[in-house]
Specification:
The protein is mainly beta. It is built from no helices and eleven strands.
């Protein structure tokens, strides 16, 4: 699966951004898609995920502010980010996870930088 993330940028605290992730290839095999973020010196963390069935999951720090969704054709994923805080500043990556034969296979898009100024 090939992934292309876009939508990052500079925004003031309290503002909003919407990230997009365009997927191509064997998207029918993907079980879970998600957004991760990473700052220098820290591990990449899961921000939000959505299953093929539409179930969503969020890290506690973004609950109520971020919304993950997928397009009807399931080849696009979005992350609507509202009430942004400076601590949301990070490089955001989209991820596609496929489970096969007791293993998980990850595909990653290139990162898109989100900068929230105070």
């Amino acid at each position: 699966v090939q992934l292309q993330a876009s939508g990052g940028g500079l925004v003031q605290a309290g503002g909003s951004l919407r990230l997009s992730c365009a997927a191509s290839g064997s998207i029918f095999s993907v079980d879970v898609m998600g957004w991760y973020r990473q700052t220098p010196g820290k591990q990449r963390e899961l921000v939000a995920s959505i299953t093929d069935g539409g179930s969503t999951n969020y890290v506690s720090s973004v609950k109520g502010r971020f919304t993950i969704s997928r397009g009807s054709a399931k080849n696009t994923m979005y992350l609507q980010m509202n009430s942004l805080k400076p601590e949301d500043t990070a490089v955001y990556y989209c991820n596609a996870k496929t489970y096969y034969s007791r293993s998980a296979y990850d595909d990653w898009g290139q990162g898109t930088l989100v900068t929230v100024s105070s």
